[in-house]
């Protein structure tokens, strides 16, 4: 099997050494070079022709974002960002994903590496392998299409089902895919709860960024928050989000139990919490690696929920929606830009339901 050629770009010699050691422990990966800044990286890319780059977001001489923008314009290739979990680091990472980076990894401090080295090792290996599996040409076309296409707010004129709720799960590529879905929803849409595989601090910045773009009010979910029409609730990193009914109302509730499918928050945990109200639920799986959410979606479908998956052509990674497809857990398979319309159509009461409600 051909090895994956990786170039490490980071201004810290210690981090470069650790990343090289961890990646080189996998027989399918070959670290072909290291660069302490983007100027050196530029020359090494020409001579080494790597398959994947790991890129620090904050570096001297040229910052990671400027370098990434130039790279995606001149020589697009899979890039995995190493990001600090500060507010500034989260904002920069979001910019990187918008520019076309495949994914990101929370960059641990040296002390954190001593205690989390094993889990960090598996994470960075997985991220590199999934990055190289992406059809980069298709990814660039999709990215340009997303950012070149003006999201049009869809109309929602009619009566919504009472206590209707939309649940969305996503992972790799999910920040951009979710942006497409949510920016098309009008402010009177049914409430939306989201489980996305992102770390703490990142979820708050992501919700804030989405709130600037959407007509709906987007916020990081808080424990005990009442779920209301016109609002989107993004699960906090490192805690499961579940929905509970109390006295006829729905609430966001945190669950600090173990990871499920190696994730916390887990999409399966969110979906399964909606089983008691499944006939009034729409569940959506967007792009992402792995199978989180597939089994929960199947269980929801079996209880009469409406289930929707993003199609393979518009997905960065068709792991999660593809796993649901294998289980026949979906009712509808949609292009990314058609999902919002599908959600709104199903959220409306039919004439029969309106007559029954009277």
TrEMBL record:
Phosphorylated by CheA. Phosphorylation of the N-terminal regulatory domain activates the methylesterase activity. Residues 155-345 form the CheB-type methylesterase domain. SMART domains: REC. Keywords: Chemotaxis, Cytoplasm, Hydrolase, Phosphoprotein. The keyword Ubl conjugation does not apply. The active site is at residues 171, 197, 292. GO terms for biological process: chemotaxis. It is found in: Cytoplasm. Its EC number is 3.1.1.61, 3.5.1.44. The modification 4-aspartylphosphate is found at residue 56. It is an enzyme of class 3 (hydrolase). Transmembrane segments: none annotated. It comes from the Bacteria. InterPro entries: CheB-like (IPR008248), CheB_C (IPR035909), CheY-like_superfamily (IPR011006), Sig_transdc_resp-reg_Me-estase (IPR000673), Sig_transdc_resp-reg_receiver (IPR001789). One of its GO terms (molecular function) is phosphorelay response regulator activity. It catalyses: L-glutaminyl-[protein] + H2O = L-glutamyl-[protein] + NH4(+); [protein]-L-glutamate 5-O-methyl ester + H2O = L-glutamyl-[protein] + methanol + H(+). Residues 5-122 form the Response regulatory domain. GO terms for cellular component: cytoplasm. The keyword Phosphoprotein applies. Contains a C-terminal catalytic domain, and an N-terminal region which modulates catalytic activity. HAMAP family: CheB_chemtxs. Belongs to the CheB family. Involved in chemotaxis. Part of a chemotaxis signal transduction system that modulates chemotaxis in response to various stimuli. Catalyzes the demethylation of specific methylglutamate residues introduced into the chemoreceptors (methyl-accepting chemotaxis proteins or MCP) by CheR. Also mediates the irreversible deamidation of specific glutamine residues to glutamic acid. NCBIfam families: PRK00742.1, PRK12555.1. This is Protein-glutamate methylesterase/protein-glutamine glutaminase. It comes from Psychrosphaera saromensis.
